[in-house]
Amino acid sequence: MPGPTASPARVRPARVRVLSVAGTDPTGGAGIHADLKSFAAHGAYGMAVVTALVAQNTHGVRAVHVPDVAFLRAQLDAVSDDVTVDAVKIGMLGTRAVADEVAAWLARTRPPVVVLDPVMVATSGDRLLDRDAEEAVRRLVAHADLVTPNLPELGVLLGEPAARTWRAAVDQARRLARASAVTVLLKGGHLDGDASPDAVVDATTVVELDAVRVATTATHGTGCSLSAAVAALRPRRPDWVTAVREAKAWLTGAIAAGEALAVGSGRGPVDHLHHAATLGAPPFGDEAWDAVADVRAACDDLPFVRALADGTLRTDAFEAYLHQDALYLAAYSRVLARASELAPDGAAQAFWARGASRCLDVEAELHRDRLDRAGRAWGGPASAVTTGYTDHLLAVGARGSYAELTAAVLPCYWLYADIGARVLARAGDLGAHPYGDWIGTYGDPGFAAAADEARRLTDEAAREVGAATRARMLAAFVRSCEHEVAFFDQVDAAAPAPRGPAALAAAGRAAP
Ligand SMILES: Nc1ncnc2c1ncn2[C@@H]1O[C@H](COP(=O)(O)OP(=O)(O)O)[C@@H](O)[C@H]1O
Ligand SMILES: Cc1ncc(COP(=O)(O)O)c(N)n1
């Protein structure tokens, strides 16, 4: 605990401190009102400096009043003279004088993260930036780390006509990134079709983020909300792609929930707190564990689990199981690598990557120490049960939601550790047990710690999502648990030993 004399500057603040420099929307859907809600929705502490007062609603803009720039400067300095600003989001500027004043303040204060949403025309079609201010906004790009144009705005920033296709827009974004040494978040909201892709583009790379287009009228303030969310996230995320991916997933949910707010009769706002239904909900793990109580109870009575615990399991059945386990682990490793790719921070990324690597070690060990020793080729294909399980995991991974993927991969840690603990307890003296060395691995404290951490990361991911995603997390978790049970149950542990060459080979071998 820091003592009373500790310097406040050395204490990591509880929340990221983010400043919006933007115009107003008295109906709360766009501008600084949207920004402050987006900041709060991402756990940041929000501040706002007003560039322009806008009389607008969900139908459009009625009037704009831009206060004197001396007053803008007074607002900006009031913040920066007192508060450490971790990130700035810049939205509507209105006039050239305002844009230049903001540029001068950025040059003086050099905030660590600057996101520029080059607001020019509202969704309603009303202009929010004077034509003679476009050059000033182009100059402002030099002070930004991330610029978030939609298709028409990107054209203006380059002094070119707006791109008519996504390919042409990505090409324009690449040229802007190179010319201005800035990262570009290109927004595809203005495209036709049933997708609403975005792309994070810098001088050398293009990362496209796919999203389905939600059929809705609730698109007022989407650009404001997205850029504000990215600004709030970036100080505590390793790179732009991670921050944008997370913000975009949240925004898609916010757009889908917007109409239910019943705000206005035109193009309504998004629901920034759409995930608030799950704020304060019990940890995901508690809910999920209760949901699979029956499945867990059924595990102990599986013939395979009983026979493994009491040592009566036939060796050929055990080896068939190990063979499927090795095939499973190879695929599971790829799924964990995908979780690492989608992870929101470095610690989670490293945890899943270590898991992926460990699976391959265990798979190699299985072949070297157990299956190859069995003295026959273990080249058979994955069973339908194994493939069913790995296909489920790969499908969740392909959908690209980190939270759902953590829920899908969790049972392989948690349910497996849970069953293993009970097999271990039932097995008795492992020295005299035919499968003692295998069952002993169930007591590995390293594995128990990894299961705890996987659960913690899943709980953490669940805190960020809305009710719909949480329901999909639960479905993915339950499905994986059912696959775990089917996996143990796929080997016919009760049947007599098979006849033929495999049985002969098995008969000549010592128990593992
Ligand atoms: N109907 C929609 N469904 C899903 N995402 C959308 C929809 N409309 C816009 N978006 C997303 O909202 C964000 C803002 O996009 P866009 O409308 O292009 O910007 P702006 O609001 O600045 O014009 C982008 O991430 C875009 O992909
Ligand atoms: C003050 C202000 N800033 C920005 C927008 C753009 O909003 P949209 O995302 O709907 O184009 C707006 N309507 N009002």
UniProtKB/TrEMBL annotation:
Residues 303-489 form the Thiaminase-2/PQQC domain. SUPFAM superfamilies: Heme oxygenase-like, Ribokinase-like. GO terms for cellular component: cytosol. Its EC number is 2.7.1.49, 2.7.4.7. Keywords: ATP-binding, Kinase, Nucleotide-binding, Thiamine biosynthesis, Transferase. Pathway: Cofactor biosynthesis; thiamine diphosphate biosynthesis; 4-amino-2-methyl-5-diphosphomethylpyrimidine from 5-amino-1-(5-phospho-D-ribosyl)imidazole: step 3/3. The keyword Repeat does not apply. Residues 25-271 form the Pyridoxamine kinase/Phosphomethylpyrimidine kinase domain. The keyword Nucleotide-binding applies. It catalyses: 4-amino-5-hydroxymethyl-2-methylpyrimidine + ATP = 4-amino-2-methyl-5-(phosphooxymethyl)pyrimidine + ADP + H(+); 4-amino-2-methyl-5-(phosphooxymethyl)pyrimidine + ATP = 4-amino-2-methyl-5-(diphosphooxymethyl)pyrimidine + ADP. GO terms for biological process: thiamine biosynthetic process; thiamine diphosphate biosynthetic process. It comes from the Bacteria. Catalyzes the phosphorylation of hydroxymethylpyrimidine phosphate (HMP-P) to HMP-PP, and of HMP to HMP-P. PANTHER family: HYDROXYMETHYLPYRIMIDINE_PHOSPHOMETHYLPYRIMIDINE KINASE THI20-RELATED, PHOSPHOMETHYLPYRIMIDINE KINASE. This is Bifunctional hydroxymethylpyrimidine kinase/phosphomethylpyrimidine kinase. It comes from Cellulomonas shaoxiangyii.
